[in-house]
Specification:
Blueprint: E1 7-13, E2 17-21, H1 41-50, E3 59-63, E4 69-72, E5 76-84, E6 88-89, E7 92-93, E8 98-102, E9 107-109, E10 115-122, E11 159-162, E12 186-191, H2 200-208, E13 211-217, E14 221-225, E15 239-240, E16 245-247, E17 255-257, E18 264-265, E19 269-273, H3 275-281, E20 289-294, H4 297-313
Parallel strand pairs: 12-20
Antiparallel strand pairs: 1-4, 1-11, 2-3, 3-10, 4-9, 5-8, 5-10, 6-7, 6-9, 12-19, 13-14, 13-20, 14-17, 15-18, 16-17, 16-19
Amino acid sequence: MNHAVSRALRVVQEGPLALVVDGGRFGVRHLGVTQGGAADWISFYWANWLLGNAADAAALEIVIGGGLTLEAEQDATLALAGADLGARLDDSPLAPGATFRIAAGQRLTFSQPRQGLRAYLAVPGGFDVPEVLGSRSATAREQLGGHLGDGSALRNGNRLEWSGQQAPERRLPFDPAKGITLVGRQLALVPGSQIGHFTGVSLYRAFNAPWRIDDRADRMGVRLRGPELHCRLGSMISEGIPLGAVQVPPDGQPIVLLNDRQTIGGYPRLGALTPLSTACLAQCLPGEEVRLVATSSEQALARHRSCLNELHRNG
């Protein structure tokens, strides 16, 4: 009888934020539990695709890099996609968008962003971590999921194990440096039911002025800095918040809510970014400039279906 061989990476040096993620946690928002999952779901998909994994296999989301160092305990083939965080395999540069061999004792190190903000490291079959409420994704605020089941980020001495079988390696069907979520900063937004309560001047500014990514950005949301927006709507009853919702608090500076957002909120909303634009935003560094572009729900759905079809054609 053939038994799967377990392999592992050991954390030699922790980084600012490295989390185990998968496709997300769904069907539990009525319990106050958010979706979590890979912030750039497209790069996450391609990292798994490179190894022939299931599309939602648990992988590692690495933000900024910041010296994160992992050491292989056994020989293995891994895959890296998404941002270029200055990865090195021992002393050799390692570009994202490909598989690579790592030998026992070799170290994989991430330094700082060169392009994009989030990289995804996949292993054959996905990491073997506990499933909590239908997902392996770490959500720090709710202390759910991840490599220890408590939502925590990687820390020195932690081990990440997997036992999946190696599949034939693949090559990305596009230039990794021109990945769909790493280029272009036009963010498509589907207007919401409260958009009519914003002043005409505010709406003009919202869609015609540039916005800069604020330093206050994390997996819960990203603040945009730009012209002050005004809404005539007074108090609101809190309502459900979708991925990509663009809330406007009293200071007039929009907040785009991401994967680890709260499940309800009471600020007026311009609308919501499309899933593709949310993935693009997740790769934007503080200080980068973006623009909001209004789109209809029909256009957004057609674009999303086209993106999914492209992914499935290469699956």
